[in-house]
Amino acid sequence: MMNTTYQSIGLFIDGGYYAKINDALEQDFSKNVNVTALMDFIRTKVSEISTSPKMDCHIVESHYFRGRYRVNDASNKHLLFSERKFEDSLIENDVIFHYKHLREIQKGTGVTVVEKGVDVWFALEAYEFSLIRKFDYVVLITGDADHEMLIRKLKALKINVILLTWNASSNNTTSTARLLKEEACIHLELSNLVAKNPSLFGELCI
Q1: Which of these CATH numbers, 3.30.1360.140, 3.30.470.20, 3.30.390.50, 3.40.50.1010, describes 7-120+133-204?
Q2: What is the pTM of this model?
Q3: Is the pLDDT at 153 greater than 50, yes or no?
Q4: pLDDT higher than 60, residue 166
């Protein structure tokens, strides 16, 4: 007999937003997000929301999208070790990473880093995987207002969309767009959850 409590979860991570969370945690607490603990937390919340046993809630697809420097630029900026270390944590948790090269553009006396096309790629892949795999829940880790329409399209597929954010920065660099929060079926803001349950911070960070 088919198990009717089974809940499939698709997880899609906006790497630029995720990096801002880690930077804020590093700066204020010398901590980083524990990928394994975060994925376990997601399963726990889906279990609570769906009233299904946690053992029946599974992340069946997880994807990470980010722009990154070419190898010579990363080496010159002393980023190779930290990038490889983070990738190891993704691999250990079966997260598939998707990268596009960053570009640096000279603007006046400064340099602007351009992460072109990653947001569009994120949205297209999230929608296509959801269409094919027919997830019960899609969890988006992002704060970008550009993904409002993605959430709307996923809801049209009758998928429960959970927006997972963490306003971990005192200067609002990790704040979430209002339209994005309003469009999501469920919004989990980790700063609010940590305020209610301080032990959660220790569980989610290393």
Answers
A1: 3.40.50.1010
A2: 0.93
A3: yes
A4: yes
